[in-house]
Amino acid sequence: MRFPIFVAAGLAVAPALAAGSDLDDLGRWAAGTWRCRSQAGDQAYTFTLAFSWQLDKKVVVARLDGRAAKGPRASERGRGKGRPGSEAQPSDTARRARASERDDEDRVRSVNVYGWDGNQLTSLFVNNQGARGMSTSPGWDGDRLVFSGTVDIAGYHTATTSTLTRRGKRELVLSARTGDFAAETSCKK
């Protein structure tokens, strides 16, 4: 019986979203679907990034869905290609199943939840590669949001910084650095 009371009490004191706050500004500007291209090291990715309000307009959720843009699939990297007809030919069903598995290997998916704690923007991130992270931002500095925090992936805990820059109503640039890894992304509505 105590648990529902604590939950209700916690919800009652949750910070209200003030009109004109940085989260409100982010949600109104970013809402919708963006088409993006990212360069991370020698790998290029294309993806969609969809922003929407959730939980009674208390958080903005960004869902990323994409894949490697060019080059060999993850399952083919480092392997030579066999000659056509040099192995037994699988059934159409088996070929489709393997193609689907390769697509999943190269697919990148993540969810980022942006919130407001009463003092600053917060961000919680998880992806299908096992990474998770938390960061904060003091808010908009002109047309830029800079988030700093930490990411955990594959047993490593490292610092991360990401900068979202809006360029008008229909273009954004994301720059991210996590440890030695860096990515530059451009998106358009």
Plain-language structure description:
This protein is an alpha+beta fold and about 190 residues long. Strands 1-2-3-4-5-6-7-8-9-10 form a ten-stranded antiparallel barrel. It is globular, with a radius of gyration of 20 Å. It starts with a helix and ends with a strand.
Summary?
The protein has 189 residues and is α+β, with helices and mostly antiparallel strands.
CA radius of gyration: 20 Å
Mean pLDDT: 80
Instruction: Count every beta strand, where a strand is a DSSP E run of 2 or more residues.
Output: 10
**Largest sheet report:** 10 strands, antiparallel, barrel
The SSE order reads HHEEEHEEEEEEE
Distance between the termini: 47 Å
Classify the secondary structure makeup into a structural class: alpha+beta
Residue fraction in strands? over 45%
Which short descriptors sum up this protein?
189 residues, alpha+beta, 3 helices, 10 strands, disordered N terminus
Task: Write the topology of this structure.
Blueprint: H1 2-12, H2 22-30, E1 32-40, E2 43-54, E3 59-68, H3 92-106, E4 107-116, E5 121-127, E6 132-137, E7 144-153, E8 156-166, E9 171-178, E10 181-188
Antiparallel strand pairs: 1-2, 1-10, 2-3, 3-4, 4-5, 5-6, 6-7, 7-8, 8-9, 9-10
